[in-house]
Amino acid sequence: MNTNSGAILVLSGPSGSGKSSLIGVIKEHIGDHYFSISSTTRAARDGEIDGVHYHFLDEKRFKQEIEDDQFLEYAFVHGNYYGTSIAPVKQALKDGKLVIFDIDVQGADAVKHRMGDITTSVFITTPSLSTLKKRLSSRGTDAQDVIDRRLEMACREISRMSEYDYIVINDDLDHAAKIIIRVALAARLKVPTLQINEFVQQWEQS
Ligand code: ADP
Ligand code: 5GP
């Protein structure tokens, strides 16, 4: 049975919960992977590079890509569009890679529905709302009104935590990273139902 046919790891959680920091730590420890670079209409933050952190598009171009059916999923989050292009994801899966998404709850839902049994989902959260507030303020990348909007959104997102396969509380960064590495390694071993059925058939005949 080919257990090396690509898999998907979805990471979601409130803005400021530590998704980017955790991805930075785990990437050396999870084998061959492709980190999906989303497209967005939001402005780049200081230090963010087009094509590395996001593909920064204007609204006209983003809407054109929606019309051209280029997205695996897209959502309107915090007043901006965010979306995952389908082509590089398909290629990475074909190459047997673990494809990692940092997407919101709406996106996670869409990916689970479209990609089904090769998807493993993880919800990342801070231990408390007050910790989230502190981390968003100390990150220093967003104005207060943007932070307030993200905190409001966080309360809505956290209410959908139960839809995920795993919950990781990012209190100590290294400890949380170790848990996600284990989940990522297990995610690679997930085998689609179709392949299992084929294996059973062949196993019975040989
Ligand atoms: P996200 O990608 O989910 O928006 P970030 O990775 O940007 O979140 O983290 C938000 C802020 O919190 C950053 O300033 C980051 O350095 C900090 N941070 C992340 N994880 C921890 C942690 N476990 N302990 C303390 N600070 C953290
Ligand atoms: P940020 O602006 O902080 O980079 O991201 C804001 C939110 O958008 C986060 O919850 C992040 O997970 C989500 N996000 C980023 N890219 C995508 C995407 O391609 N699709 C969806 N649905 N959400 C995304």
Describe the fold and architecture:
This protein has a domain at 7-36 and 97-205: Rossmann fold. Helix content is 45%, strand content 20%. The chain contains 8 helices and 9 strands. It has a 5-stranded parallel sheet, with helices on both faces. A 4-stranded mixed sheet has the order 4-3-6-5. The chain starts with 6 loop residues before the first strand and ends with a helix. 32% of the residues are buried. The mean pLDDT is 93. It binds adenosine-5'-diphosphate (ADP) and guanosine-5'-monophosphate. Adenosine-5'-diphosphate is lined by residues 13, 15-21, 135, 138-139, 170, 172-173.
The geometry reads as: globular
User: What structural class is derived from the secondary structure elements?
Assistant: alpha/beta
How many helical stretches? Answer: 8
**What is the CA-CA span between the terminal residues?**
14 Å
Q: Which runs of at least 5 residues are low in confidence (pLDDT < 50)?
A: none
CATH superfamily of the domain at 7-36 and 97-205: P-loop containing nucleotide triphosphate hydrolases
Residue-averaged pLDDT, rounded? 93
CATH class of the domain at 7-36 and 97-205: Alpha Beta
- Beta fraction of the residues? 15-25%
Portion in helices: 40-55%
CATH topology of the domain at 7-36 and 97-205: Rossmann fold
The main sheet orders its strands as: 2-7-1-8-9
* Bound chemical compounds: adenosine-5'-diphosphate, guanosine-5'-monophosphate
Order of helices and strands: EHEEEHEEHEHEHHEHH
Could you describe the largest sheet, including whether it forms a barrel?
A: 5 strands, parallel
Radius of gyration: 18 Å
